[in-house]
From TrEMBL:
Domain Flavin reductase like, first and last residues per copy: 18-163
Recorded family membership: Belongs to the non-flavoprotein flavin reductase family. RutF subfamily.
Protein name: FMN reductase (NADH) RutF
Gene: rutF
GO terms for biological process, alphabetical: nitrogen utilization; uracil catabolic process
């Protein structure tokens, strides 16, 4: 197959285009011997349902990177309407302990913090990872799921938050 010759896509052009891709907002957490940590991520998606697997992309320069790879666990907590403050707290710069002060947390099978009030929580173990450019793709097997009935969702689109009205999650 011949790939058409074209100019390289500039970093800013890529980001401008990606800003047009609406995405759910998630607080990704971990806990274990390498410490409790969390960060905000929109780069999350389903991979396969056999075994139930999702992926999370994490920047290797993030302060939380060693905690996630060291612990080998993640909980993907999907945010709903009115949880922008949590997203901003986990979105960088804020010290780890302070990030967790904005929510109530419990623990599930992996020990990763589960956010009370999250619309969805996927408790996972990391089964593999692949480095691509600045990021690692974490492949995460889902061991447990918690789901709220009222499935309003916080969406990040065009560089700002949008609230999507509630609907029944398991219609
Ligand atoms: N995948 C990511 O790492 C990612 C995604 C969204 C936001 N962010 C962080 O939030 C900040 C604000 O984002 P914004 O949407 O308001 O404006 P922005 O112009 O920085 O980013 C626009 C879009 O480009 C993508 N993007 C941004 N930084 C990226 C990166 N380092 N690697 C891969 N994709 C990236 C995301 O889809 C983002 O929504 C970013 O500068 C970045 O630090 C990172
Ligand atoms: C809306 C939104 C979405 C994302 C982010 C931010 C925000 C505000 N960030 C950035 C990430 O949350 C941030 O780098 C971490 O919190 C680590 O920051 P510190 O290095 O601890 O300051 C982010 N980082 C990442 O590695 N993958 C992702 O998918 C996203 N998505």
């Amino acid at each position: 197959m011949t790939v058409p010759h074209s100019l390289p896509v500039e970093r800013q052009a890529f980001r401008d285009a990606m800003a047009g891709l609406a995405a759910a907002v998630n607080v990704i957490t971990t806990d274990g011997p390498h410490g409790r940590a969390g960060f905000t991520a929109t780069a999350v998606c389903s991979v396969t349902d056999q075994p139930p697997t999702l992926l999370v992309c994490i920047n290797r320069t993030a302060s939380v990177y060693e905690s996630f790879t060291g612990n080998g666990t993640v909980c993907v907590n999907t945010l709903g309407n009115g949880q922008q403050a949590l997203s901003n707290a986990f979105g960088g710069k804020t010290p780890q302990a302070q990030r967790f002060e904005g929510g109530c947390w419990s623990q599930g099978v992996t020990g990763a913090p589960i956010l009370e009030g999250a619309k969805l929580s996927f408790d996972c173990k990391i089964t593999s990872s692949t480095s691509v450019g600045t990021h690692d793709i974490l492949v995460c097997e889902v061991l447990d799921i918690r789901q709220q009935n009222e499935a309003d969702v916080l969406v990040y689109f065009a560089r700002r938050y949008h609230e999507l009205a509630g609907t029944q999650a398991s219609a």
